[in-house]
Amino acid sequence: MKSYVSPEYLIERDNDKCIRCKVCVNQCSYDTHYYDEEDDVLHSRNENCVNCQRCATFCPTQAITIRENPNHYRSNANWTQEVLTGIKKQAETGGVLLTGMGCDKPNLTYWDRLLLNASQVTNPSIDPLREPMELRTYLGSKPDKLDMDFSSGEAVLKTELSPQLRLETPIMFSAMSYGSVSLNVHKSLARAASEFGTFYNTGEGGLEKSLYKYGKNVIVQVASGRFGVHPDYLDAGAAIEIKIGQGAKPGIGGHLPGEKVSAEISKTRMIPMGTDALSPAPQHDIYSIEDLRQLIYALKEATDYTKPVFVKIAAVHNSAAIASGIVRAGADAVVLDGVRGGTGAAPRITRDNVGIPIEMALAAVDQRLRDEGIRNQASVIAAGGIKSSADVLKAIALGADACYIATAALVSLGCTVCQKCYTGKCPWGIATTDLWLTKRINPDIGAKRLVGLLRGWSLEIMEMMGGMGINAIESVRGNRLLLRGVGLTDTELKILGVRMVGE
Amino acid sequence: MVNRKMVLKDVIKTTPENLSITGKVAKIDATGIYYRDLNRLLRSLDGNGIEKIEIRNVYGQRYIGTDLDDHLSIDIYGTPGNDLGAFMSGPKITVHGNVQDACGNTMDHGSIVVHGRAGDLVGHSMRGGKIFIRDDAGYRVGIHMKEYLGKRPTIVIGGTAQDFLGEYMAGGVLAVLGLNMKERRHDARFVGTGMHGGTMYIRGEVSHLGEEVTIVDLTEDDYSVLGSLVDEFCSYYRLDAEKILESKFNKLIPVSSRPYGNLYAY
Question: Do B260 and A96 touch (CB under 8 A)?
């Protein structure tokens, strides 16, 4: 069948600048560029280009420019280029439109309509470069009250505390399975988390043997496929996360296609090579809050009550009530993943239309848990579309204990958010298991770049806290007076629990 | 890691009436013991030279067998609760009674032999070890069980099982012997829905299959696998293996290891 889909991008090559080094040919995993020996010239197959910018970045003479194809269909606010192209692709394949990364629509972000406060005159600001600033965060269930024993003349804590995770900055690396991303990405994340004093999440693909040594900075995930889940794996991590849902694809499972199940992936997931790794939509032992409690306590029993157990859900309409159930089921932390959260592969229709923004879910959950008097029983972790240190700080002011980042972490490793992760051919060596491509991430450099990101964001958070006259992140947590809304309706402000600017 | 010797002393001090130890055998009366205390007690016995544990009067205590070591053999009298042997790696459990839901959930290694019936989700996501149920089992038996290299989980159900038997099955062996059935037909519907690996052997007819599964004849290799499973099954329950093997078995295998391979537009 002749395809009616036209190339999305055009590649322009300045032949005067081009030195025929063929870097573009070697770097592109989509077979876009080729060299014509006879004419000593390079050409491009525009239809293969995904605009990942790998070739343009590595071209030593900057001879390559990639532009959106100007041959657009007639402008139409409803029947956009994306809509028309999608329909044509589906007509030609009869399939579900796949995509990668988070929702790319502009109408679902509230962070940018929330503004932080700063001290002026009445409450002096603090210079974080000269004065101590506390970003340390503990995740886990906190007791209702502390019993102390003073009989020895010293204060001795009598209350037995639940297991806690200690974070040196309230930012962790969110779940990305080994399989959806490469081993070198996992190595980079593990090393960076361990160097900076935070945590990286394995996702649902098991923990590769060589990474067990980073265990005290690893959160191991248990999801519906139970891939790579066995007693050693549960023992290896500092915490266990039960994955119920993901912001990019609430309510649906996942398929790691057989092509990506290489020998290495097969070993860690503990399934035969080349078979589809199917993660069912529900966990079949969880059909209720009571069942969830059963799994939470199965995992606690399996690890002798030594680790906090998190429960991750996608932010959906009823998140507040669900979160209340999760806390009552005994989870030590609730993870909320908003509609803009990323993915290695999801149906585009689900990614862009299902779920709610993290800001609203977070505010509603925090408020509900406070109203019920159980907020201390679990930490709340916000995820899905956190793209700057300001987003982290705003999330904490809205009620989060910490944030998970994943897209931002990948961007620091080179990702350009081209949204083609599901092809498994990531030219940046990130969302691929192809050994030729995965070499493009050097874990030493990767860890350095991730630590750079964590350090930069942490410094910025301290700057903003100092500006507000606050020297401990604890004082920001759930302190919505630090936020004001702009361009929001009364209802939006009410749900967020923040006042309008000027109020 | 908890200092298990210390714990044992403490536990013996606090619950002497429930526990008696003779040589390498420990006996526990589980009457009125909360599951968490019972499991803590089991963990404290584990690694203290105890090889066999007998637990009597078990009434619904969950997670028995979880987080215990390799060499233990555990005899349970009564009805253990949900998630018996969840994430279990090693112990040999014999249940003199029925088991509830999710017996052998995500089990890694070891065995569970049940002298009675089982609830739903027997061997959910199991990746190794063996489960034998003498009588019937509930819904979704063997759902998403999977194998890798030498690890090949096995479930044998003596009676029949309910709907979604072997759903999402990705590996391992699941045998249903259909003993004590009035008719020679299993009522289970949607058998093998989403199945993409492993093998089911079913004695008696199955009428309602999932779309992803097909029935084929057994080969000689199949008979040797099945024969040793049925032999082992019969050794626990004193049944005649030859008689069971005389009847016709159906072999169910997935149509494809990639059932959802062409679902997407790129």
Answer: no
Cβ density class B141-177: b for 16+ within 10 Å, e for less: bbbbbbbbeebbbbbbbbbbbbbbbbbbbbbbbbbbb
pLDDT in tens, A342-382: 999 999 999 999 999 999 999 999 999 999 999 999 999 99
User: Which chain A residues have a beta carbon less than 8 Å from that of B36?
Assistant: 301
Radius of gyration (C-alpha) of chain A in whole angstroms = 24
Per-residue pLDDT tens digits for A64-73: 999 999 998 9
Interface of A with B (CB under 8 A): 89-90, 92-98, 225-226, 229-231, 234, 255, 257-258, 266-267, 270-272, 274-276, 278, 280, 284-285, 294, 297-299, 301-304, 422-423
Interval A126-184: pLDDT, tens: 999 999 999 999 999 999 999 999 999 999 999 999 999 999 999 999 999 999 999 99
Query: What per-residue confidence (pLDDT) applies to B10?
Result: 61
Count Cβ atoms below 10 Å from residue A291 Cβ, excluding itself. Answer: 18
Question: Partners of B253 in the beta sheet?
Answer: B214
Tokens of A30: 């989509």
Single-letter code of the amino acid located at A360: M
pLDDT at B262 over 80: no
Q: Which residue in B122, B152, B263 has the most chain A C-beta atoms within 10 A of its own C-beta, making it the best mutation to test that interface?
A: B263
Residue of A nearest to B197 (CA): A275
From start to end of chain B, where are the E strands? 19-22, 25-29, 52-59, 73-79, 89-96, 109-114, 130-133, 154-157, 170-176, 185-186, 197-203, 205-206, 213-216, 249-254, 264-265
For B265, which of A97, A270, A299 is closest by C-beta distance? A97
User: Are the beta carbons of B154 and B128 closer than 8 angstroms?
Assistant: no
Residue of chain B whose alpha carbon sits nearest to that of A48 = B266
8 Å CB contact between A34 and A8: no
Binary contact (B121, A284; C-beta < 8 A)? yes
Query: SS3 of A260, please?
Result: helix
> What is the spatial distance between Cα B213 and Cα B208, in angstroms, rounded to a whole number?
10
Q: Which residue has the tokens 């409450």?
A: A123
How far B172 CA sits from the closest chain A CA (Å)?
A: 11
**B83-108 pLDDT, tens per residue?**
999 999 999 999 999 999 999 999 99
Strands ordered across the beta sheet of A96-99:
A346-347, A96-99, B264-265
Per-residue H/E/C for A468-496: CCCCEHHHCCCCHHHEEECCCCHHHHHHH
Contacting residues of A for B151, CB less than 8 Å apart: 270
Q: What secondary structure letter does DSSP report for B67? A: T
Helix axes A183-196, A443-467, angle to 10 degrees: 40
Work out the minimum CA distance from A405 to partner chain B, whole angstroms: 27
Which ipTM score applies to this complex? 0.92
SS3 content of chain A, % helix, strand, coil (to 5): 35, 15, 45
Which residues does chain A have within 8 Å of residue B86's beta carbon, measured at their own beta carbons?
298, 301-302
Name all domains of chain A by residue range, CATH numbers in brackets: 9-95 (3.30.70.20), 160-500 (3.20.20.70)
- Decide: A393 and A464 in contact? Cβ < 8 Å: yes
Minimal C-alpha gap between B247 and chain A (Å)? 32
- Structural domains in chain B, CATH included, are 117-266 (2.160.20.60)
Q: B197 and A89: CB-CB below 8 Å? A: no
Rg (CA), chain B: 20
Separation between Cα atoms, residue B114 and residue A61, nearest integer Å? 72
Contact B196 A275 (CB under 8 A): yes
* Cβ neighbours of B146 in A, within 8 Å: 270-271
Mutate to test the interface with A, among B87, B109, B256, B262 (most CBs of A within 10 A): B87
